[in-house]
Every structure is written in C-alpha cells, then in structure tokens.
Amino acid sequence: MVNIVEIHNLTKTFPGVVAVDNVSLEIREGELMTMLGPSGCGKTTTLRMIGGFEFPDTGRVILEGEDVTRLPPYKRRVNMMFQDFALFPHLTVEKNIAYGMRVAGMAKAELVREVARMLEMIELPDKAKNLPSELSNGQKQRVALARALIRRPRVLLLDEPMSALDAKLRETMQVELKHLHEKLGLTFVLVTHDQTEALVMSDRVVVMDEGRIAQVGTPIELYDNPATPYVANFLGTSNMVVAKVTEVSGETIVTEYGSGTIRVAAQGKRPAVGSEVMLCIRPEKVRVLLNGQDSPESFNRLDGVIAEQFFHGASVHLALDVGAATSIVIQHQLDTAEGQAALPPAGQRVSLSIDPASITLFEEVTAYGAEDRV
Amino acid sequence: MSQSRRRLFGFAALFAGPAVWWGTVLLAPYAIMFMISFYSKQFPFMIPDFQFGNYIHLVSDPQYYLVLSRSLKIAFFVSVVAFFLSYPLTYFMVFKVKSPRVRLLLYVATIIPLWVSYLLRAYTWKTILGTEGILNSFLIWIGIVDEPIQLFLYNQFAMVITMAYIFTPFMVMPIYAALEKIPRSLLEASKDLGIGKFGTFFRITLPLTIPGILAGFTFTFCLAAGDFISPQLVGGPYSNMIANVVATQYGIANDWPMGSALSMVMLFIVLGIITLSDKFERIGRLNLG
After folding, report:
1. Boundaries of domain holding B116
2. Domain count, chain B
3. Counting CB atoms within 10 angstroms of each CB, which of A62, A87, A218, B33 has the fewest?
C-alpha cells in the first residue's frame, strides 16, 4: 500500500516539555489510523503538525511525496475537524460549509450544488439557514465534517471527534464515521484518549506514551500482542501480575505465581531463571471450571478462592485470590439460562483454566498496578 | 399570612435604601429638570408654566444647532480615533503577546489612567500641545520647524486628541473582552479552510468583535458628546460643546428653563444611541451563541 503521509523523526518542544520526541510514522492511503494515548502523550501535537498548525523543531512531514513540513494549513490538502468543531458562530450552516470555497476557485453555481450535496450527505438539508448555536452537538459535528470534506482533502484529521458528545451518541457517531470512511475511501487520522473508540474504529492504532510511539499495529495485534506493559494496560483491561521464572525450556516458560505455576508461550523471549517477569492476563481469556468441566491438558490450571463478584449485566467479574499479592480478575460470561445463579458464591474454591498462548510475558517489571480491572 | 408579611418586610428592608437613593438623586433630578424645561423665563426669575417655547427656541436659533452638531461631530471623531488606536493595540495584546503576565500588565497599563484625575490628564495635553510644550520643543530640537507651531492647541483637533486619549480605556475594555472570547480554534479552522491571515481577520475576527466595538463606540461617543472640561482647557474659541452651553445657561445667563431643555435634548440623544447600540449588540450576541 502507498504511504500518503510520512513522518520522519518529528520532534516538538514547548517551554518545559518535549511534546513529541523523535516520532516516525507512516500512514497508508485510505486507512483509518488512530493515535491513542493519555493527555500529554503528544498525539494531538503530532496531528497538529500534520495539519500545519504547529511546525516541528526538527523532522519532516511528507504528504504524497511532497515535503510540507513548513507549509501553512491552507497550503496542504489536509483538513481538520476540531475538537470543539470550531464552527463559525456568525455564519449559517451553509455558509460554514461553503467557507473559503470561492477563494479556492470554485464557481458559484458549482458551490451551491456542492453545499447541497454535502447537506444531503450529513442529512441536514433543512438546517442550511440555521446558525450553529441552533444545532445539537451531534449536528454540529456533522456540519464540521461536511465543512472539511467539501474541500476534498487527501487526509482528514479528526481531533478527539467524540469528546463533545454524550456516551450514547458517541457510539452512533463512531459507527457513522466508520461507514463514512469506508464509503469515501479517504485517509482518516484520528486522535483519541478513548481506547474503545480506537479499537472499534481503526484499521491501525498508534499508541503514544510521553511523546514517543509505544506500538503501532492493528487493534487485534495490539490487544493480543502488546509490546510493552504500558500498551497492555492502556488497551482493554488486564491483570498485570509479577511472577517468578522457574524454568525456561524450548517454547515454554514456567513461572511461579502465588501457590500455583503459570506456563507461558515463550514467543522468542528468554528471561533468566529466577528473575521476575510481568504477565498480562486478559480477564476474558480465563475460564472458571464449573461442575467438573475440563480443559485441555496444555492449559494452565490455577486454584483460587472467589473474593468478590461484580455484576456487569452480560458478564460478571470475579476477583480471585490465588494466594499471591494481587488477586486475578476474570470475566465470566453469563450466557447460560441460570446466569449468575450458576456461579459459586464468594468464599468458594474454584479452578481456573488459562491458555498459555493468551498470556503475554514482559521481561520488564513496571509499576502498572492491578487497579480498575473490575 | 405572617410569613408572607415577614417576606414583604425583608424585601422592603433590603430595597428601601437603594430605592430612596435612586429616587432622590437620580429620578427626582430628571423629573425636576424635565419640568423646568417647560417653564418660562422672566429675568431674573423663572415662572412655572407649561409651554414649548424653550424647545422651539432651541430649534429656531442656529447657535444651538451649531453647538449640538459640533458636539456630535467631535464625539464621532473622538470615537473613530479611539477605535483606530484601540483595536490594533488590543488585538496585539490578545493575540500577539504570548505571556499572560505581560498581557495583563499591558492591559492594566492601558486602563490605569482611569484612576488618575480627569482634570490632570486634560492638563497634561496642554503641556504637550502648547507653544512651549513637549511636542513643539521636540519638533524644534530635531529641526523640522524653526519656531513653535500654534496649531496644536486651542482648537478642535486638540479636543479630539485629548478626549481620544482620555476615553481610550472605554474603547479598549469591551474590545478586549470580545477578542479574548474568540476561540483560537475558529482562527485555525479558517486557516485550515484556505483563508490567510487578512481574510481570517475580516471574515471571522472582526465580525465576532462587533458587539465589543459597538459597546466601545457607545461609551466613548456618549462620554465625549457630554464632555465639559476639554473644550475649556484645550478647545479655545469656537469649541463650545453642549455641556458648556448648558453650564452657561444655568450659571451665567441664569436661564434654567433653557438649560433644562438643552439637557433634555442631550439626554434623549444619548438614550437613543444606547438603545440603538443595545439592539445591535443583542443581534451580535445571538450569533455568538
């Protein structure tokens, strides 16, 4: 696939902070790429440098093979949808959408047609004469989208597009935006701090941490094979437990955790026997063995006591004490007719089954704790 | 019953003071002035009456018309000069000064003359513009002129300059507030949509500050139109403004009915301007929503 945007060694410093630190990235034509990270990780600054709103201290931004590093926003075929939508409050919806198009050289008759087409696309033709203050947030977002798309940009930048919407509308707009992306075949670069949004919408995700790229990959790659504990912790919920290596043999690493042992697929890692490692165990990949259920021989078996239960509707989260410093949280689907009634009560001993291939092992032990897993 | 009575008592206790104050020092003088403006005059007394002679006199005597139009003209020029001085300054403060502390310092420096006596500030311009003044000394020193220029002081030019200086803070304050309220993302969006700096200023920044500009114009215009001191200090002959004539009518001519009629006319002009600007401002504010 062709790279539509290439970022080479981008660095941007603001007084007292390095916002973006030597970031290199390739964005492929037609993909929906998301930059994900907590506030202050440099994702917005990177986006703004692609858009031309900030110039980097060093490094280059290449758009369609052309160096645009120092070009102002109006000289690159990139458009931005702003976090607050930035609709012009004194102009009507149609004037907002048509803004700047005459200067760009579009004939009046064609512009009228294009604006009508855009209004049709965002399903707001009856709001043409309304002022932005008369629209709901969802409608404002569509107008902002139309205003950016009428210019036929090569890349559409979206800065936290859902942050001004309430939770329900957010989900709808995520789907709508994804459909629009598929329909237009345009390259979207989206910035968000919401991992669900990133997982749901993106073709590829860039996880950023303190101005650097932590990992780039498809949502599935990132979720199943996080490169660092930071990525594992940021995407989805996970048990990050510290275990001690007792044996390294071939494709398997055996660790000791609490009173039990956990075998992990080595995946090329070779920690020293006796060293401490970090294991990322996804709550939904652990099974509670009920009523004498069995699991494959190769799977890990752990015994534990149910410490707490947290009801989540479709599932229940169980905190299990396996005789170690931190308990393990697992997600149990309530898909049987008995539902939660089939589960043993708190205080009961149960067996757990974990596929060694579903566990990610990190040789570095970091401070990422076991909070907010339930 | 008793509770509603207690509530009524509390209400009265809270508002009686302001009501008496408002009634005696604001409303009553207006009412008295309005009443006197219909009195007739028989030197040196005025006679309670209800006749329109004073107003007819105002319209028929070109002297009053001249003073009135001069007042409005000077007030207009003062507002325009103050605007063209204030807008770029304020724009610079809000958009170009990066440090919030420096910005606040500049803003306070602009506003702080308001705490200095008006009279003192008007006198200052006398020492700047006079024949022995700073401006002439400077011009002679750099050799542009050989002898002091008398054109600077005691004319309408001097009045406009002085009042523009004195009322500039009233223009800066509302414009500052309006500029500061504009989200930076709007300016970035405009650039993103292909419009450069100047286009963005005229299409976005300026329209969004119209309410502030209107408020500034209203302040400076009304204050300047009713000014009394700068015509006396720096105005020289042929610079009498409406307030000076009113003072003369009350003080020297002892013609209170005429003075009252003049005051009423001025009051209604100012009220008209305020109503108009309020109406426009409201339209502007709706847009900002």
Report:
1. 53-288
2. 1
3. A218
